[in-house]
Amino acid sequence: MKTLVGIETKSANKIIDNLNDLLANFQIHYQNLRGLHWNIKGKNFFELHVKFEEYYTDSQLKIDEIAERILTLGGTPLHTFTDYLETSKIEVGKNITNDIEAVNLVVTGYKQLLEIERKLLIVSDEADDEGTNAMISDFVSEQEKTLWMLNAWLG
């Protein structure tokens, strides 16, 4: 049996599960970025306030893409904070105001997203799911560059 887009249902379900895992982790990452944007203090405030807004805006777009891909494959995207907290492996950052602590939280979040995305690349490749593979491949390229830049900032 195949999905609307021609992927074997069993394979699509595996991809949907992995995409929902990514979605939950991205939602926590997004919320961390919002909190950091609001609460950052110190000499790097202006630089990081703008940068965190850039990152959460990008994350918001990716979250929507992930949810729409799940729907395209015939699944239901996770959509409650309970689901996100139960599923996500990304640490929730609370009341972080320090620049280095904030950037380290973001770096850790991106590393965890990349780990999930690389697993998804394998699963989507095995299923011959070019749509998911292309989307995730683009995410990986962008996030690797972001990690490089954040690590350069950390020195």
TrEMBL record:
Keywords: DNA-binding
CDD domains: DPS (cd01043)
Entry protein name: Starvation-inducible DNA-binding protein
Family statement drawn from the similarity comment of this UniProt entry: Belongs to the Dps family.
InterPro entries, per database record: DPS_DNA-bd, DPS_DNA-bd_CS, Ferritin-like, Ferritin-like_SF, Ferritin_DPS_dom
One protein family per Pfam: Ferritin
UniProt GO MF annotations: DNA binding; ferric iron binding; oxidoreductase activity, acting on metal ions
Ranges where the Ferritin/DPS domain occurs: 16-154
Keyword Nucleotide-binding: no
